[in-house]
Amino acid sequence: MTNTLFPVFLKTETARFLIVGGGNVGLEKTETLLRQNVNINIKLVATEISSKLKEVLEHNPHIVFYQRPFEDADLHDADFVITATNDTMINAEIKRKANQLKILVNSADQPDLCDFYLGSIVKKGNLKIAISTNGKSPVLARRLREHLEESIPENINESIENLNVFRDQHKGDIKAKLASLNEVTSVLIDKKKSTEKDKNYKSLVFQIAVVFLAVFFGYGLSTVISVTDLNHFASEIPSAFFAMIAVGFFAQIVDGAVGLGYGVTCATSMMLFGIKLPAISGSIHTAEMFSSGISGFSHYKFGNVNKKLLFWLAIPGVVGAVSGALLLIYLGNKYETITYGILASYTMIIGIRLIAIAFRKKIEKKKVNNTGVLGFSGGLLDAFGGGGWGPIVTSTLLAKGRKSKYVVGTVSLAEFFVTLAASITFFVSLGVSHWYIVVGLILGGSLAAPLAAKLAGKLPQRTAILLVAFLVIIFSIRMLFKIL
């Protein structure tokens, strides 16, 4: 079948739509039209109206609806008709009568009864993209819409407005205006090409620098420190250092594959190695401070940070982190067994929450209440348990339907301030007696970083989160049995 569709963008201020059918399809078509214009002229006729559609009608009193069968008179004040009943014969009859009156018809999931299609629509301010598969696969059209919505930056409308001002202020004929606009917007393509060249150049420079530094420091150290001195120094390194390299490596692999779980994985693993409780959290936050700082700065640079949300997460989070660190230092010194039990129970709860995240369906956007309390709780439990800021704060915001890009960006930058506050508190109270743990975690994480980057997105997110959750729960149960 040849694709003969001609895309047209219809102004909806004066268009009148008739929807016949009040089930799920009728609900979907009604919501689709309302997303384009909240004041759009709709008349809905149906013998039965679903409860969800009734809610939509209650919130949009301008929609005229009749709970009765379709009547020929319903076509008299309609410009476009959408049939959404589950009876093909009724849909076909309505189309026949509408076409006699020169009215165009769309029939859900019945291309043969359609004069036009309602494609999947990407809407970003003044930018609007309609996607159609010629009626072959609405699912694919929806997936493409979701991909474009995620890829197109939120501030694209600012660029459109700026270009509109530039066009209006430009003097000259249409040809001159087009030439100027082409020159201005060409940077979008040239920037992509130059970015790829820069990446190749930076990669080459980095590799040369690493080789040079390795040779330089290797030769320099060989003239100052003998092999005997190195052997003696190596014998003085605590055995826990090598265990921490393994823990850091494993935690970074998990975090790279899933996008969260670094702190919880480190905490549960280090408890099994018998590391003292304050040293666990202090080491994790010191090691994580570097990665969260780089990650947060990158998100801020690319515009992924909501400044208002950052304020309400970071400040209460810092207060919570300091409180959690002091609480752990006090409990860790005097009530070690009880604290192990609390931490093991806490990590088990985190594991259960991760399972809930894995099976969570797409949730509509809801208002986030008590953001400061969320930040304080996340900081407190993160410092006290050595991890949990991501599973607690990120999952809560995502569960409220917030856009993942801004949630991850804002939470990542806020995490830097939280980990910094916790690290300073642990440093002032404990000093640097646990340096080998910090260095081991950083070294293990650095070794795993390239492999973790390759794993990112390769493992299905639900599967990866479930694997982390089960590991955390198993470690937590084992720790509880160990202290009982």
From TrEMBL:
Q: According to its record, how does it sit in the membrane?
A: Multi-pass membrane protein
State the coiled-coil residue ranges. Answer: none
SUPFAM superfamilies, per the entry = NAD(P)-binding Rossmann-fold domains, Siroheme synthase middle domains-like
Source taxon at top rank:
Bacteria
Question: Which keywords appear in this protein's UniProt record, sorted alphabetically?
Answer: Cell membrane, Membrane, NAD, Oxidoreductase, Porphyrin biosynthesis, Transmembrane, Transmembrane helix
Residue stretches spanning the membrane: 201-221, 241-264, 309-332, 338-359, 406-428, 434-452, 464-481
Pathway membership, UniProt: Porphyrin-containing compound metabolism; siroheme biosynthesis; sirohydrochlorin from precorrin-2: step 1/1
Spell out the subcellular localization from the entry: Cell membrane; Membrane
Catalytic activity reported? precorrin-2 + NAD(+) = sirohydrochlorin + NADH + 2 H(+)
Q: Which family does it belong to?
A: Belongs to the 4-toluene sulfonate uptake permease (TSUP) (TC 2.A.102) family.
Q: What PANTHER family does its record include?
A: SIROHEME BIOSYNTHESIS PROTEIN MET8
Query: What's the name of the protein?
Result: Probable membrane transporter protein
- Could you tell me which species this protein originates from? Flavobacterium hankyongi
Taxonomy, top ranks, is: Bacteria, Pseudomonadati, Bacteroidota, Flavobacteriia, Flavobacteriales
